[in-house]
Structures are given as C-alpha cells and as structure tokens.
Design a protein that fits this description.
Helix content is 41%, strand content 16%. The longest helix has 28 residues. It is globular and about 70 Å long. The strands form 4 sheets. It has a 9-stranded mixed sheet with strand order 1-13-12-10-8-7-4-3-2, sandwiched between helices. It is of the alpha/beta class. The protein contains 14 helices and 15 strands.
Length: 442
C-alpha cells in the first residue's frame, strides 16, 4: 500500500507489524497473574468449597453415580442416596446441559449443579451461539440470550422442587454451581431466583450462593458488580473462556481464517479506550466476585506454589486474551479440581504453620464477610464514578448512600440523571412533604 502511494519504505506495513508485535507482547505479559496482581489474597476458609464443588460438578458427567467411571482420587464425596434428581440431554430436550440436584447434609447445602459444554452436542453450541450484542435486557442490564433461556427453562421446571427442599431444610444454603456453559446458566439462574424469591419459599438473599467455575461472559458490568455478594467466579490462570471478548458466533464461523480474527482483535483492542469499554452497557463480563488461581511462572516456564487472589474489580475483569499454551487445558474441570485442591492444601498449610488458634480463625471468618461487604460497596461506588450504567445495589449489601468521601465529584449531566433516577428508586415523599427511604427499595 505504501509503495503504491509513492513511498519508498512500507511505512504503514511496518507500523502495523509493530502494533501487532506490541499487542502480542502485552498478551504474553498477562500470563502468571498480571491481571490480578493488585487483588487481595483469598483465605482457606473462603476457598474451601471450591474443590469440593468441582468434584460435585464432575459427578454430573457420570451415567451411574453408584458405579463411577471417572472419579478423581478419593471419589466425588457424594452420597448417592442424597441425589434428589439427575437429568440428561434427553430429559432436558436439548434446552440445557445435564444437571443434578443434591443435598449435602454435612455442609448443610442444597445444590443445583450443571455440567459444561459438550463438544459432541450440537444443542450446546446452539445455546452458546444464541446471542448478539445488546440482544437481551434483564434487571437493568444485559445478559447472554441463550444462557438466559436455559436458566429460565431450569427455573420453571425445578422451582417447585427447590421450594420444597428450601422449606424442608430451613437452615440450609441454596447453592448453584456449574462449569463453562453450565457456569453461565447457573449465574443467570441465580439472578432469576434472587428476583423471584417468593417462588422459592421466600428464601433470604443471604442463603443464596453461586459458584461459576470458568464461566462464559454472560452479564453486563453493572450486573456483574451488583450481584457480587451472591455470585463467585473461579478462574484457573490462563483459561480462555472468561476472557473471550470476540463474539462467539464470529469466532466459530471464522476458524478458517484465524489470522483475520487476531488482526481484527488487535486493531479493536488497541484503538478502544478502557473507559469506553466500561461505559458500553451491552458488553458482557465474567460475573460476580472473582477468584484467580495462579500455579505457573510467566510464560509457563515452571510451576510455583499455588496462589489464590480475589476481588470485585470494576475494570480489569479478565479483559485481555492471553497468548499461552495453557489457554485450553486451563479450562478442563478435571485439571481445575486437581489444581484447586492443591491450592486449598497450600492455604491450609500456611494456616497450620502460622498456628492460628480456632477462636481467631472464627473471628477471621467473620471479618472476611465484613471485608467482602465493604469491598462490594467500594466496587459499586467506583462503578458509579466511572459512569457504568445502572450500577446500583439491589440489596442491603451496599448502596451509594455510603459512598466514600474520596469518590470523584459528579460533574456530567448524564451522571446527574443517574443520581436522579437512583433517588427516585430509593426515596419517596411522605404526607408532610419530607423525603423518606422507601421500605421496599430493594
């Protein structure tokens, strides 16, 4: 092109190649936890359920839990007599991946577990590809259309079963968990349950939990932050799924020209400012509180002692694809179960070496809950400061009434409109003309 223009040197080609080289180098740098380097460290008590939940999800793949074929060392830890129901593709009519409802009496939890993407099932691909940018709205934000349909199908078919179990076990937690495709479904299923708690025996919000293992991007940023008190996403180091920002339909249809995808992605990410991406209400992200498990050195040159980082970030929610030979292997639920178990053993060993008394461990668990609540509030405040649309909290876990003093002032007309809308949702005028907080504002 440059030669045609009469330039003796291919300047444009050189600039383009340098830009691509810079982009590729930055992608390589994001290996080994660069994205989560400023996050806090997770503790053994908060990470303890994750390896166990991975084993439960693996059990969904078994045809007969009483005679398992692919059980990890030590087994799945499931009592077959406590399996309420288990449905496969035929029973689900291709609407969703196989799932199971299980009662964990030892930990006082009611589980609904959904398996991940099956490469041999066309229905799973169709479900994953059933989405376009800004196609489906939900609770003031945007969600993945196909995953929402699957979640609605599960909710309508199993809400009576869940209601009966919740009412029977009043002190149990209702926990949703899934991997990959199933992680996206349980994320939206959890949001449906939170919005329709009256159909699940009026269960309290604090009794609802979700663990999305290697989730697909399925919710807009405002929903990802607002539901961080309920939803937890767990990602193994370089896993590609939570980082996939290219439209999945384009990705699958364009595999014959993978260099074209890299070229387009390079240009798009280089020319798009972070602030513009955050303010696009249609852009989808990994949901909730994020846990990042790091097990290898930069560029995969060697292993390290497992590190578990956690945060409720507003920017930096796995925004960058990583150029690594582990992007596919890190998505394997079997590998995750092993790595997460090793990470938990490492965290427990650190606690043992520190010789923390049981009483202090209980106090630490209580303080972790408080810290998570404060971190959630701070994330909501930061989202407001960055003009993330509809970034308000729907629960008692945090509102903008407690915005920190160092929050940047609101100067734009668009921001003032957001505050006016928020005030209308939170306050009402009583008979004396005074502004009072609505009793049912959440």
């Amino acid at each position: 092109m440059s030669l045609v223009c009469g330039c003796p040197c291919p300047i444009l080609e050189c600039v383009y190649c340098l830009g691509c080289a810079r982009w590729a180098w930055k992608k390589c740098l994001y290996t080994a936890g660069r994205e989560s380097e400023n996050w806090g460290f997770a503790t053994a008590s908060e990470f303890e359920p994750v390896p166990r939940i991975c084993r439960y999800i693996l059990a969904v793949y078994e045809f007969d839990i009483r005679n398992p074929l692919w059980a990890p060392p030590g087994g799945y830890g499931i009592d077959p007599d406590m399996v309420v129901l288990k449905k496969d593709y035929d029973e689900n009519q291709g609407k969703v991946s196989p799932y199971m409802i299980y009662i964990d009496k030892d930990n006082k939890e009611i589980f609904l577990l959904i398996s991940g993407l099956n490469l041999a099932k066309e229905s799973d691909y169709l479900l994953l590809l059933d989405d376009k940018l800004g196609q489906t709205k939900f609770d003031g934000g945007y969600v993945h259309n196909g995953l929402l349909k699957a979640a609605q199908w599960v909710f309508e078919n199993e809400c009576e079963v869940l209601k009966e179990l919740v009412e029977k076990h009043e002190d149990y937690t209702l926990t949703f968990a899934g991997h990959s495709l199933g992680a996206g479904v349980v994320t939206l299923l959890t949001m449906l349950v939170v919005k329709n708690r009256d159909r699940i025996g009026n269960i309290e919000r604090k009794r609802i939990k979700c663990f999305a293992i290697a989730p697909a991007r399925c919710v807009s940023l405002n929903l990802a932050v607002r539901y961080a008190d309920v939803i937890n996403s767990v990602v193994l180091q370089d896993d590609f799924m939570p980082r996939t920002s290219v439209a999945l339909e384009v990705l699958f249809k364009s595999l014959f020209c993978f260099p074209c995808i890299l070229c387009g992605t390079c240009i798009k990410e280089t020319c798009t400012l972070q602030e513009h991406m955050l303010q696009d209400p249609r852009r989808l992200y990994a949901p909730g509180r994020l846990y990042h498990v790091i097990v290898r050195k930069p560029f995969g040159v060697g292993r390290i002692s497992p590190v578990v980082k956690t945060a409720v970030p507003v920017d930096g929610r796995f925004e960058h694809m990583v150029l690594s030979c582990h992007v596919l292997s890190d998505h394997s639920i079997a590998l995750m179960e092993r790595e997460f178990s090793n990470a938990l053993d490492t965290l427990k060993e650190k606690d043992r070496v520190m010789d923390i008394p049981p009483q202090q461990r209980m106090e630490r668990s209580s303080s972790i809950a408080i810290e998570h609540t404060e971190e959630h509030k701070a994330a909501l405040a930061k989202a407001a400061a960055l003009e993330v649309p509809e970034a308000y909290s729907p629960s008692e876990y945090g509102t903008f009434r407690n915005v920190p003093e160092d929050t940047p002032p609101i100067g734009s007309s668009r921001r003032r409109e957001n505050w006016d809308e928020l005030a209308g949702r939170l306050f009402e005028t009583d008979e004396s003309g005074q502004m009072v907080l609505k009793t049912n504002w959440y």
